[in-house]
Structures are given as C-alpha cells and as structure tokens.
C-alpha cells in the first residue's frame, strides 16, 4: 500500500473510529477481538468451512482497520498499542495460513512461502521505521489488506472451483510480498542515504 492509498484509507476509516470511541471501545480491545477473529478463521479453514473462513477474515480485517481508526479518532494511540497491533497482525496472519495449510488444500511449502513473504515485507517496514527512524515505510505493491483480499479471492474460488485456486492465491501473495520487501528496502536506502548525506 503506497502513501497515497494509505492516506486515503486512513481518512476513510476515521468516521468508523469515531463511532467506536462513542461506544467506549479501545484500540487494544479491538486488536484483541481481531486476533480472536483471525484464530476463528484459521479453525474454519482447517475444517474446510471456507465460506465461514472468508467471513471471519473479513471481520478480522475490518477490526484491524477499526483499531487504528479508533486510535486516531480519539487520540488514543500509544507506543505500546502500536507495538501490540503489529505483533498481533503477524500472529493473525500465521493462524489464518496455518488453518489453510491444515485443510490439506495447499502444499505446506507454499503456505510457508506465503507466510515468509508476508513477514518479510512487514519486517522490512518495521526495521526501517525502528532502526532507520523513518516516520513511515509503507510503500510497495501490496499491504496487509491487499494480501488478505487475494487470499479471500482464492478461498472463494476454492469453494466453487477446487482446482488449486487457494494454493495459487498463496503463491501470488508470496511473490507480491517479496516484491514489496525489495521496494521497501530500496525506498529506505534512498531516504536514509539522503538523510545521511545531509548530516554534517
């Protein structure tokens, strides 16, 4: 998700965040509920309840949007909340992919490939922002929502046309995630090199 799309996404989500603030929901509570939804999605995929799995992944993605929107709308963001959110996102991704692999519909190798790609892109961003001190490193072909959209599409096709649709979706996610990793590293290199050159 590039900067422009990210900004539009955040602006779009703010009204939903305001509703959550009025309801007394905190960002961390929404993060926790999102993790439970991702875990439930993993179980659904494991049992080959693909339609339920798709709905639960959509719910988890919506809650992932809500926790950040609520933090921004109510000025409730904290450093620990950001750390918690990033870690929970990775755990949620693992649970969803674990359930897909346990379903037997995809090769464990391709499941690991997709997981590696997703985590690699996230790690590149995390290191650029923490070690490099960059305000944001969210450039690249795909973000978390786009990756889940591809997985959801694969799961839907798997329901009606069970011919490696879900496996193909994971392969696409893995490839696009690795491309995103390279894009983020290249962006970080350019930005940090310029910053270093400006220092006395």
Can you identify the CATH superfamily? CDP-alcohol phosphotransferase transmembrane (TM) domain
Total of DSSP H or I helical runs spanning 4+ residues = 7
Oligomer: single chain
Give the topology string: H per helix, E per strand: HHHHHHH
Overall geometry: globular
What count of domains describes the coordinates?
Answer: 1
CATH fold-level assignment:
Four Helix Bundle (Hemerythrin (Met), subunit A)
Mean pLDDT: 90
Distance between the termini: 34 Å
Low-confidence stretches: none
Beta-strand percentage range: under 5%
**Cα-atom Rg, whole angstroms?**
18 Å
Q: Level of helix content? A: over 70%
Task: Say how many strands there are.
Answer: 0
CATH architectural type: Up-down Bundle
Per CATH, the class reads Mainly Alpha
Name the structural class. Answer: mainly alpha
Structure description:
The chain has helices spanning 3-22, 27-46, 50-73, 79-102, 108-130, 144-160, 165-198. It is 81% helix and 0% strand. With 200 residues, the protein is an all-alpha fold. The mean pLDDT is 90. The protein is globular, with a radius of gyration of 18 Å. It has a single domain (3-192), classed as CDP-alcohol phosphotransferase transmembrane (TM) domain (Four Helix Bundle (Hemerythrin (Met), subunit A), Up-down Bundle), CATH 1.20.120.
Quick gist of this model?
It contains 7 helices and no strands.
Give the topology:
Layout lengths: L2 H20 L4 H20 L3 H24 L5 H24 L5 H23 L13 H17 L4 H34 L2
Helix pairs in contact: 1-3, 2-3, 2-4, 3-4, 3-6, 4-5, 5-7, 6-7
Key structural traits:
Four Helix Bundle (Hemerythrin (Met), subunit A); about 200 residues; 7 helices; mainly alpha
